[in-house]
Design brief:
The structure holds two protein chains of two kinds. By secondary structure, chain A is mainly α. Helices cover 74% and strands 1% of the residues of chain A. In chain B, the strands form three sheets. Chain B has a five-stranded parallel beta sheet. Chain B has a four-stranded parallel beta sheet with strand order 7-6-8-9, with helices on both faces. A four-stranded antiparallel beta sheet of chain B has the order 10-11-12-13, with helices on one face. The radius of gyration of chain B is 21 Å and the shape is globular. The chains are: A mainly alpha, B alpha/beta.
Chain lengths: 362, 439
Amino acid sequence: MLAVSSRFDRLVRPTLGRHLLIGLGAAVVLLLLSSQIGAYDDYNLTEVAIFAIAAAGLTLLTGLNGQLSLGHGALMAIGAYTASLVLKQYHQLPVVAVLMIAVLSSGIIGIVFGFAAARLRGPYLAGATLTLAVALPQVAFRFKSIFGGESGLTVSPLSPPDWLGADFPPERWLAWIALAAAVLTMLLLANLLRSAPGRAFKAVRDNEAAAALAGIDVARTQVLAFVISAACAGLAGALLAYWTGITAPAGFTLALSLQLLSAIVIGGLGSLAGAVWGSLVLVFVPLLTSGMASRLSLPSSVADNVPLAIYGGILVIAMLVAPHGIQGALRRILAIGRARWGHTPGGGQKGVVDWDDPAPDT
Amino acid sequence: MKSVMGGSATRIRAIAIVSLTGLLAACGTSGDNTSGANTASAPGITATTVTIGSTQPLTGRAAPGYSEISPASNAYFRYLNDHGGIFGRKITYYYYDDGYNPTNTASLTRKLILEDKVFSLFSALGTPTHQAVVDYINSQRVPDLFVSSGCNCWNDVSNHPFTFGWQPDYTIEGKILGQYINQALSGKKVGYFYQNDEFGQDGVKGLDASLGASSVPDAARQNYVPTNTSIKSQIAALQASGAQVVAAFSIPAFTALALLAAAGIGYHPTWVVSNVGSDVYTLTGLLKSFSKGAAGGQLLAGMVTDTYLPLVGDSANPWISLFKGIRDKYTSYLPWDGNVLYGMAQAYAFVQVLKAAGRNPTRASFVKTLETTRLGGGPGLAPYGYSTSNHLGFLGVQIATIAADGTVTTTGPVYQSSDSGPITAYNGSPATPPANGIP
């Protein structure tokens, strides 16, 4: 027993402590940041936090467990609809309870779907999750009396608690909630990835047969990854319901699933930091380009599509310049710096950078 | 019913209405008047500019046709700016692409209000998209004029005091179309083809009010959802029900699909199609592209629809020549169709309100002006219904028919109604535009 607990201390404590410290630091920085910026920037920061939660869940599934999901938008929809339906019945329910219920319900769907997903590989899994993304919005049309059909369910905005004062912007309050949820999610996921299940995820991704031989229950690992990923998507979806003020099928099209996927690829597949980078790109690039249509003096058939073309162009360039995403590129720059000026932790030769070495997982 | 009088009587009437409008505005906004210096009287208003904004489907499934509306409005504002603006202020119009996705609408509306600090929203398009932000806009007390959607949900004065609709609501439209079916197509079996959302259901509510809910059996009530383009079974069911008249509340793409499906099975009912789904230019293009050139505008022959603006093809109408001239000068890349006319007419109405609100309006006085001023002298055929208890726009429509060559002709009087009230004929005569085209 003693041996176990001391091993526990040696292995987990430093990681947990480090992650807690980073999480606390991030929370303080974000709190200060969100208090300094305007309400609109808080609102965008909230969107980044929401996408970061969903992208972190997806990167765990796709980047670390090797299961490609084209249906994460639908899992977000489950969280969003759960939150909206709960709020319709119980207006006064505290936001934490609403978020927990959404996490639970999407987690349960995740279990059901995870069992199916664990039997499927590669394009078949992609196809099955694609079905989820395409079919789920139709449920809202079919059962219109419950889900509100095309016009969806409205969610009244969160009002900040009284002790923050009457002039406290509601956008900032929601930003605090979303950022807290994001930091907490990242903390839990980072810890999970450093523990036995996290190593099992990677082992299954790299070689299922070898993982099975090493005593890892492959199917169970895959279902677990799917459930955790779905729960993250559900949490993001519930926050999105508060953020948008409406939960409607048009908000959860296949495009949302593909956006999440592009976020984790641009950010750096398989890295939690990459999920954050990708979410920043996902939120801020369209914002920077959205005003162009009304400001360019071009025929509207051209001007209307300029923002989409720029977004597509950035994707292409990002993949060419940084095939391992933003996080991969940052690591590379750090590695060059180390190789040139400092010590080489890997024991490699000073001044030599191994360009073909894929970015290590975190 | 083509007004080419343009005589002095009409002009005097127009002048009288305009001056009366100004007078009423002066009373309504107590203290604000038209003399004095320009001040930055409200967010989005400086001494030299008025900034307004909108969210529009410039790309995506709702973009065909509707993406023309905001550049057309902007063309009118540019025309206004080139002619001195309003009270010397130029209008800056930001319109952002939400792709008909409420999530984008939510974010872009905050951008407009919090970052661009627009004075007012204008012409924001779509029922589900605008429903996502209407609470927020009203909590920020930002004027939300002329939502581009005929949902009667915009008429909610107590919860949404800053939101106003513009086009006739679909229930009123359905009632007037239903009355026409009763009168001109009496004795024929009627079927419905409608979009399964607020748009279609509100329209059916109006049709039922005139035709009697029991006169159309369930088998003849067919609907579609915009995400599913296979509608052949619905059209076959309408044929099987024996419907000789099909009343359609559909968007252009689905009107075209229905016409093609019906033609494909040799089914030729009289189509009665709501205004938003019947633009001849848009439909002809869609019919050609969906049938790969096999069919075209000839399928529109005999279609019945309605209008609340002068007809796009009526080149003798002074409003049409004014707006078409502006389109030729500023946005010649846009086709000349109903969507462009819609955008221009909305912009004209907005400038009317800006003028009536006086030199230095606040957001509250601007909204109060719209509630208390009778907006006359515009291009509309029917009167506006704005008051302190009603935030609906046009109260009625005029029936129109489409000939084999695509010519649209209006028929009968302009009818007006409300969601629950009776239908009455409106006797007001159409206004002519001011000489410089600016209210």
